[in-house]
Amino acid sequence: MPVHEQLAQGRWQELTFLEQMANVGSEVERAISWRNKNQKKLMLGSITRAFELLSLTIDAQRESESRLKELCRVKECLADSFLDKNSFLSSDGDWKSYFRSFTYAANVKAGR
Hints:
- The chain has helices at about 5-10, 15-35, 40-60, 65-85, 90-110.
- With about 110 residues, the protein is mainly α.
- The protein has one domain (about 5-110).
């Protein structure tokens, strides 16, 4: 059963792409925070939620080939960074910078 059950039932598609990515970024930032506090169980919960939201975003972006490629690559790199050997040498700062761009753009678009 999805952690974000309401979102999985269609609410996610009501959000803009920028809002979707900002929400994924929130979970990634939580995962980073828990990892830095050596809280593996909590980190795994956060990154699992991030993967779920990213999967919902991928499903919502099936029509955009360029976005689809980027989203699949992001998912691959996140898995490498948090669950494997970090072969791509991603840093916490890289992830924060990547996702904060979406948060900033979503806020600007919403007039905040």
